Input
Amino acid sequence: MNFFRRRILRFAIGIRLVAGIAAVSGGLILLPVLSGGGAQSQTGRTLKTIIPFPAGGTADILARILGEQINRDRGVSVVVENRPGAGAIIGTEVVARAVPDGNTLLLTASVLLVSPLVHKVNYDPLTSLEPICQLTSMPTLILVNGTSPYRTLADLLDAARAKPGSLTLATVPASTSHVAFEMLKRTANVDITFVPYPGGAPAVNALLGNHVTAVLLPYTGLQENLKAGTLRALANASQTRSELLPELPTIAESGYRGVVDEFWNGLFAPAKTPNEVVSQLARWFSDAMQVPDTKAKLVAQGLHPVGLCGAAFASLLRDQYAEFGRAIREANIAIE
Output
């Protein structure tokens, strides 16, 4: 009798063990599926990337280069949609109002931090968007026509002091370059007339036609003119010298510290996008920039890959927003 009782007890224990293992195994099978669904990952997913500028600009080119690489790497379609207008406000508002599921992104530039300081907007650049990564940076240059008598920034400023109001400088209104120009005027105590243009290309055309004395613009699109000598760079408005133009001094080196235009392109999602989705997107875009062929394409456009993501990028945004606000107030800049 004891023999049969022991056999029955062992059989019951065996059944419980098998059931327990099955339950644990079932949990291990289900967890990755749930995790993958939460991160909305992989093949078949479509990312709509809003560019708040016209087609053919820096952000547009960057989005398309990285989108092609992400599609190859992840099987994810990146659809680029240009929504220009009002100093990048229109496209930015579209993303700020979008569902925070990681499927609608904003690829914009440093003007994101200037527009709310000089225009009425329906978003806060620091709280209405989730910063993903600073993707690239590029130098911003003060340029003159290749036939100009001015060969250094000092030459240009000395001429401005000699004939107040006679020299002109073109850039895009309500841009970081506009703020930097106004700060340079104030710091150097010169009177140079500001001439607004709706984009970099028409400003360059005006300079090539000798309709303006100088321009202050990002480097992208200027390479061929610089190589041909039809344009001459006098100074770099970045914090430090650029790897793209290592021989060109900065405005700070020329004696005007605090006059800085750090031009960048960055990627954002709507606020409250889940952290795991933001991290996944940061990884996808950062990895895409490190692919040698893709990196070479970016450098050829004058774009220096950065890949500053998460909290570090958010900190940069806070610091620059405060700096731009202070500069606009101190210089009494009225752009509207």
User: Anything to note?
Assistant: The two ends are 99 Å apart (CA to CA). The chain has two domains: 46-138+263-330, 140-236. The CA atoms of residues 174 and 335 lie 6 Å apart.
